[in-house]
Amino acid sequence: MSPQQPLISIITPSYNSSLFIEQTITSVRKQTYQNWEMIIVDDCSTDNTPEILEQIEKEDERIKVIYLNQNGGAAVARNIALQNAKGRYVAFLDSDDCWKPEKLQKQYSFMQTNYYAFTFTGYELITNDGVLLNKQIPAPEQITYNDMLKNTIIGCLTVMIDRKTVGHFQMPNILTRQDLATWLAILKKGFNAYGLNENLAEYRTGNPSISRNKWKAAKMNWFVYRKVEKLNVIKAFWCFSHYAFHALLKRI
């Protein structure tokens, strides 16, 4: 690895993820870009996830695990990871999703070549068993704040941010859609998000967690519009109708 290539911090919240966490970590360890650290915050798991993480942490010094004594939710876990991250660049990967081996290298090069501070990529859907569903979510060339209000197409598992340029940020402590609220906060500062339209990640479907519950996700989107972004009812409804339409398209 060239010394000119900076450290990338990978932010991973984990809760009862014993079925998939090893696959997730393996996808990181296979990255062609190797100057990374993976900060996993275990959110007081009640299964054998901690035992799995303890063993893996011994195998690779780039993997750092923080164990919480009380369950706080994904936002708390991600924020603790962000507070402990040492990299100029941060990338996000949940404990049941995976990356393609060239993900970090291609995305870092994309950012360096174009002087981008906030990027995301395309991704594809897989089943709980890791079978491809032949459903790909493309990455638009560019997303602005107003674009993001109407189309929440940025997959958290694909995001990479240059913290030196964007500045300090944390995720709001809301039940879900913390990632949406965070991207909106960054975009509202005047940044745009730029898409690398390659399928460089795999999003696992079928998990019964709250983020997979589409009705709850829709209600939380409305919450973000009204309570976080403080949009008036008319604009909130306009944005929500566009969000619903694009969400439907992603699943056809």
What does this entry look like structurally?
Helix 8 packs antiparallel against helix 9. The protein has one domain: Spore Coat Polysaccharide Biosynthesis Protein SpsA, Chain A, CATH 3.90.550.10. Strands 1, 2, 3, 4, 5, 6, 7, 8, 9 and 10 form a 10-stranded mixed beta sheet that branches. About 2% of the residues have low confidence. The chain is α/β, with parallel strands linked by helices and 252 residues long.
Features:
single chain; 9 helices; 10-stranded mixed β-sheet; alpha/beta; Spore Coat Polysaccharide Biosynthesis Protein SpsA, Chain A
Number of helical segments with 4 or more residues: 9
Shape: globular
Helical residues, percent: 25-40%
Number of domains: 1
Structure class: alpha/beta
Separation of the first and last Cα atoms: 41 Å
Task: State the CATH architecture.
Answer: Alpha-Beta Complex
CATH topology: Spore Coat Polysaccharide Biosynthesis Protein SpsA, Chain A
Can you lay out the helices and strands and say which pair or pack?
Blueprint: E1 8-14, H1 21-29, E2 36-42, H2 49-59, E3 63-67, H3 74-84, E4 89-92, E5 98-99, H4 103-114, E6 118-126, E7 132-137, E8 142-143, H5 145-150, E9 160-162, H6 163-166, H7 178-188, E10 193-204, H8 214-228, H9 233-250
Parallel strand pairs: 1-2, 1-4, 2-3, 6-10
Antiparallel strand pairs: 4-9, 5-10, 6-7, 6-9, 8-10
Helix pairs in contact: 8-9
Task: Describe this structure in a few short sentences.
With 252 residues, the protein is of the alpha/beta class. The chain has helices spanning 21-29, 49-59, 74-84, 103-114, 145-150, 163-166, 178-188, 214-228, 233-250; strands spanning 8-14, 36-42, 63-67, 89-92, 98-99, 118-126, 132-137, 142-143, 160-162, 193-204. The chain has nine helices and ten strands.
